[in-house]
Amino acid sequence: MTYKLLTPGPLTTTMSVKETMLQDRCTWDDEYKALTQSIRQNLLEVALVSSDTYTAVLMQGSGSFTVESVLTTAVGAEDHILFITNGAYGERMTQIAQTIDLNYTVYAVPYNEVPTKEQVTQLLQQNDHITHVAMVHCETTTGILNPIEEMGSVVAAFNKVFIVDAMSSFGGVPIDFEKCHIDYLVSSANKCIEGVPGFGFVIAKRAVLQQTAHQARSVALDLYDQWRVMEIDGKWRFTSPTHVVAAFAQALQELQQEGGVEARYQRYKENNALLRKEMARYHFHPYIEPTYQSPIITTFLFPHAHFDFQAFYHEMKANGFVLYPGKLTEVDTFRVGNIGDVHKEDMQRLMLSVKKYMEVVQ
Ligand SMILES: *Cc1c(COP(=O)(O)O)cnc(C)c1O
């Protein structure tokens, strides 16, 4: 049975994206290297940035590998990074920093709140040894959308390097690189671009990346070296996930056919609005307030103390939908994702299944 994955990635991809993987490709062949180069150029176009100022680098592994590659490469031994966190992915960056022994400070915000400009300004004023600031755009833990434009302008005012984990938002939520003052943006193949998992990518300011030679504490995750080699002719340093790369090129084409980031954002937003409105009928209320709610994924509170999520999950799965468990410790929640090849009809079908279940089981 095939399911619609209502998860934040890996997600449901189109048949045409999957079919691209039926051909084997050679990593050192010119055609493949050209494919890599066209993806890199395409990513800059999706980001609406110029190749004079920014460059795109692809990195093997899941999204976290790419986050780690940015942190290990961008933050030097004498540097100090501030992490602004309100969820598990922000905390993962902290864990990486601790493991690779970076100098860091954490500004932790409750999971259902966003950081304030005042607090970050004060932190940067009082700690002029801070050189880098990193945060997550859409915290997939809860679905909260962080104000990166507001934060970026504070970070830029203090002349710090700004790193954004936009893993679950890039390609599905418009991001203005200039207004956000982004130096490094990280995302991966299997989120809003709607490809399959296997690599991540970084859109970095050339002038900033260029200063990071020999800084990485890792060979495989050295972003500078990966970029240096890829920049020559599109060759990946080590074996690349060829099938995944081809699928990603197709996914990028389909993003363009849909009408680009703005059109995809509209689809996600409409499906998310439909979902939240209909779910409320059955007393499923979101954990995040509407102002901060992303159109990517929604965390729902259990409708009552005796709600049996396992039973609900299995019933939805039997109806063709895979939901996502919650990731919060203090409250009982589950999550429903909107990204992937999921359309209004799918949401309507899901809601029919929810209705049937809730009417019988309630
Ligand atoms: C998916 C995701 C990641 C990366 O997770 P992986 O499991 O390593 O792919 C990082 N940050 C955010 C916000 C994410 O949504």
UniProtKB/TrEMBL annotation:
Binding positions for substrate per the UniProt entry: 335
Residues annotated with N6-(pyridoxal phosphate)lysine modification: 191
GO process terms (BP): organic phosphonate catabolic process
GO molecular function, one term: 2-aminoethylphosphonate-pyruvate transaminase activity
Required co-factors: pyridoxal 5'-phosphate
Pfam families given in the database record: Aminotran_5 (PF00266)
Protein keywords: Aminotransferase, Pyridoxal phosphate, Pyruvate, Transferase
The keyword Transferase belongs to this UniProt entry's keyword annotation: yes
Residue ranges occupied by any Aminotransferase class V domain in the UniProt entry: 54-306
Classification via Gene3D superfamilies: Aspartate Aminotransferase, domain 1 (3.90.1150.10), Type I PLP-dependent aspartate aminotransferase-like (Major domain) (3.40.640.10)
EC number: 2.6.1.37
Reactions accelerated catalytically: (2-aminoethyl)phosphonate + pyruvate = phosphonoacetaldehyde + L-alanine
Stated family: Belongs to the class-V pyridoxal-phosphate-dependent aminotransferase family. PhnW subfamily.
Oligomer status and interactors: Homodimer.
PANTHER family: 2-AMINOETHYLPHOSPHONATE--PYRUVATE TRANSAMINASE (PTHR42778)
Alphabetized NCBIfam families for the sequence: PhnW-AepZ (TIGR03301), PRK13479.1 (NF010006), transamin_PhnW (TIGR02326)
Function field: Involved in phosphonate degradation.
Protein name (database record): 2-aminoethylphosphonate--pyruvate transaminase
Organism encoding this protein: Lysinibacillus alkalisoli
